[in-house]
Amino acid sequence: MSKKKMYYIGLDQGTTGTTTLLLDEQWNVIARGYKEHKQYYPKPGWVEHDPLELWQRVLESISMALEKGGVSADQIKCIGIDNQGETVMLWDKVTGEPVYNAIVWQDRRMARYADELTKEHGEIIREKTGLMADSYFSGPKIKWIIDNVDGVKEKIQEGRILAGTLDTWLIWKMTHGRVHVTDCSTASRTMMLNIHTGKWDEEILDILGISKSILPEICDSSMMYGKTDPLDFLGASIPISGSVVDQQAALFGQACFRSGTIKCTYGTGCFMLMNTGDKAVYSKNGLLTTVAWKLNNKMTFALDGGIYITGAATQWLRDGIKIIKNAAETEEMAYSVKNNGGVYFVPAFSGLAAPHWDSYARGTIVGITGGTTREHIVRATLEATAYQVKDNLDVMNMDSDMPITIMRADGGATANNFLMQFQADLLGIPVDVPVIQDTTALGAAQLAALGIGEFDSIEQLEGNWKLAKRYEPKMSVDERESLLYNWHRAVERAKNWSEE
Which residue ranges form the domains of the chain, and what is each CATH number? Predict the structure, then answer.
């Protein structure tokens, strides 16, 4: 009797949708499932998701991948999950119902509160968590739900409330409410983890007014958390053995295991991470210090440059002002004009993240003339992504004292040849795109395989990384400097615009 083929699943629960990657034991992609979910914008600067809809889309995405691959659920060796990071929610553990929508990482409703935190406790928060006090992170969002949703404080006293980032919610749902955990990398995005001890920080919890009793147990990024419950999860009992925040999953999937290696993921936003090894490097220029992953009780750290809006700006061209039908056509449109026509687009829809950290910046298009066409605006939108990545890489170079000679890129926008070539031109170093571009889901699947003992060490995974295309810089230094000079002028005009 022939042995049944087995597979790994990497589940990437992202900001705009959920991707499932089905991989065989040789790490080939067998199938991919993807399901979008709705974004809710109840007030300016507020962004929410419906957690019950997210759960349904996760099940649909996995079912789609299994169906496409002709694979049954009982052929899955293990599942690894990566999540949005700072997006957070609270739910009633008795009913299983969320007490409020998940508040998304882009949400700015606690910006004023974060300003006050910075004045009073900014140094303590920075030293202990590696982060600056900002409404981007989970802690202030949890505080908002506790303070503003009726009945939550009373239910916390009754011991009925659980809080968690979306990894915590999904694992809780998959295990029929038996497991309430997060991993160290995701916890490091909450502004409540002491990155030196690997534990929730009591002093910061007191400042925020959050009870430790509602928070999940902090675990390694690769270990056996539990098994899926057949009642809730496709009729199968499957080990859940990898969990990590999305950008760190991509760092892992890009095989950036050595200090000084760097990757940038192009998604809704853009996120650049550099592995700094067992050393927590503090930035003097606006980058974050974060946990990359925790394996065998040992933390690996990273420098993090996050950009709120990149791919979401292209989505806005499609859904907001409707000047494109799909993202794929932007490449040809950008190439159809010989330059940007003097147009610069700063897509600060919800402020600017690293290295500016300006919650009050807003989206700005400058340089429009009577000769400006929609092609110029599309090109300026793609260029804006590359400019923002360049700004972060320059800061990373300054802060790390580790010379950056190459950048690995992943995410949906790496399919855009114009963007990738322009990116290499601006950076002045090669940009490498791997064969498997869903590196977030890949990294999650690899951590899950490590968690059930498929590998003895992460070094064994390095050989799995394969190059699809290298983009070499071609632009002159003068042209690069002229473009960047005008970009920075545009950024200054976008800053500190909103008074709310």
Answer: 7-247 (3.30.420.40)
